[in-house]
Amino acid sequence: LLPDETLSGLINQDALTTADGKIVRAYNLAYPSMSLMKDLMILELALDYDPDLIVWPVTLQSFPDKIQAETPLVANNPDRVMALIDLFDLPLEIETSAFVQPAFWDRTLIGRRRAILDALQLQFYGLMWAATGIDQTYPSDYTPAQRDFAADEDTFMGWEPGTLSADELAVGILDAGALLAPNTPILVVNEPILISQGENSDIRYNFFYPRWAYDQYRELLAERADIAGWNYFDLWDSVPEDAVPKDAFTNSAVHLTPAGVQTYYDALKPALQAFLSP
Q1: Within its chain, how far is the Cα of 242 from the centroid?
Q2: Helices (DSSP H) in 68-199: which residue ranges?
């Protein structure tokens, strides 16, 4: 997606206004990979900029306890992660081995020469990005998201049908986000997913999710949102494949095409406007 085709780009183009006439500006704080702990780390720093609203899109792939440290942002910041876990008494156990623990040599200038080189190269690339407005590759072709599945593909990350437990999902991180930002409204959005119509799609919605796991997750999330009083919006099926002239999804079950993002934004807009009303 080009910057103006993303969700934040569409919000900015729409020129929404607040009740007192201020124009809404949206900022995209996305970081590759899915992890609620990674999101919480970003939220902690984003609050320094005094935002008026946090839109927090989530999906089941972000919730399992066992994947929270798989993203480099978490794995390389054990002190920040453990501080957040302790601060909010999160029932989340991350093995020490999941963190990157640099040795003394790795912390020296010589040991960090590759990281220093990467940082210098990024500064150089920044000049080109600023000049062209292009900071990534936009492929004209890609492998479409999987639509057909085997008849025995009914497990989710090692869980057998019916065994998904709320105790092994990091739902408490969303509660921590609300405590971290007590004066800033947070809109939790269960984001759209690909709902396949291919072979054995009665078993799996898509590559990520068997139907039993995703349905159970939605029940758990809705129940927790009701108990905790979250501002919660479930848009999981708001972008059906036949909702746009061409495919709504690109190379994965959660990556949308420009037309898919527009459909997503159209579904989300009423919730955003509710926060802008007097």
Answers
A1: 24
A2: 72-75, 78-87, 113-132, 172-180
Q: Find tokens 């639509």 and name the residue.
A: 147
Per-residue pLDDT reduced to its tens digit, 223-261:
999 999 999 999 999 999 877 767 899 999 999 999 999
Geometric angle at alpha carbon 76, from 70 and 81, rounded to 5°:
80
User: What's the sign of the alpha-carbon dihedral 83, 86, 90, 94?
Assistant: positive
Helix/strand/coil percent split, the chain, to 5: 45, 10, 45
The pair phi, psi for residue 232, each rounded to 5°, is -125, 135
pTM of the model: 0.89
Read off the DSSP letter of residue 119: H
pLDDT tens by residue, 36-87 = 999 999 999 999 999 999 999 999 999 999 999 999 999 999 999 999 999 9
Q: Burial letters for 244-260: b for 16+ Cβ neighbours within 10 Å, e otherwise?
A: beeebbbebbbebbbbb
Q: Rounded to an integer, what distance in angstroms lies between the CA atom of residue 2 and that of residue 185?
A: 28
How many Å apart are CA 68 and CA 119, to the nearest integer?
26
Helix (H, G, I), strand (E, B) or coil at 133: coil
Q: Look-up: residue for tokens 């929270």? A: 68
Single-letter residue type at 174: L
